[in-house]
Amino acid sequence: MKMLKFALPLAMLAASSAAAFAGPIVLNMSGLQNEEAIENYFNGGLGGNGSGPGPADGIVFSSNSLAIISEAQGGTGNFDNNPSGGPIAFFLNGSADTMDVAGGFNTGFSFFYSATDAGSVTVWSGLDGTGTELADIALNPQTPGADCPAGDAFTYCEWTAVGVTFSGTAESVDFGGAANFIGFDDITIGSQNAGGGPVVPEPSSLLLLGTGLVGFAGTLRSKFARKA
Fold first, then answer.
1. pLDDT tens track for 49-83
2. Are 60 and 40 in contact (CB under 8 A)?
3. DSSP H/E element including 10
4. How far is CA 201 from CA 127, 148, 158, 195, in A?
C-alpha cells in the first residue's frame, strides 16, 4: 500500500513585503484537489491544477509539496482520522519539501503528522532552507497505533501534534523524511500549539539548534498514497 503519489518541486520564492506574522496562521489543504501541487495557493495564487486563488498569506511551497484527499472522501490517500478532516500535505519525491514565508514569522511552529518512517522538520532563518537553523524536530514513526479507530482500514490513521518555540525570525521550513511515508496536517505558523490547540510538551525526540537531520528507518510496508 502507498499513501499517495507525489512530485515535489523546489520552493519558488514569491516576493512579499509583509512583516513577520503577528498571530498564528493554521494551514490546511482545503480547496486543493487530490494530488495537486500546493505551490502558490497560500500566496493568494493557484495550486498546480489551477485551484484557487487561495488565502493571501505570503506562503509558497516547493513544487514537490502536494495535497492529497483520503480515499474515504473520493481521493487516493491512504489516511483518515486527521484533525482537519480534509486534505493533508505530503511529498512524493526528494528528501524534503520546503515552505517559504518571505515576510518571516516568529514565536513558534507546529503541526500534526502521521508517519510509518522517521522524518524531521527544520526551521530556517532564510528562504529555501538557508541561513541559521532555528529549530530541528525529529519525527518518529507512530502509525498505525493505539489512537487509530477500531478496525480502521487506512495505514495513516494516528496523528501526533508537535510544536516548538524558537528565537529570531524564520523564513522557511523543510519537511524531511522518506518521501511518500509521512503526511502533515494543520500546519501552524507562529505558535507551538498545533491547530491552535493546547500546549504540546516537547517530546524527547525534539532537538533544538545544531542537530542534523534524522536518519531514515528501514523498508516499510505501507506508503502514504495508494497506487491507482
1. 999 999 999 999 999 999 999 999 999 999 999 99
2. yes
3. none
4. 28, 21, 18, 15
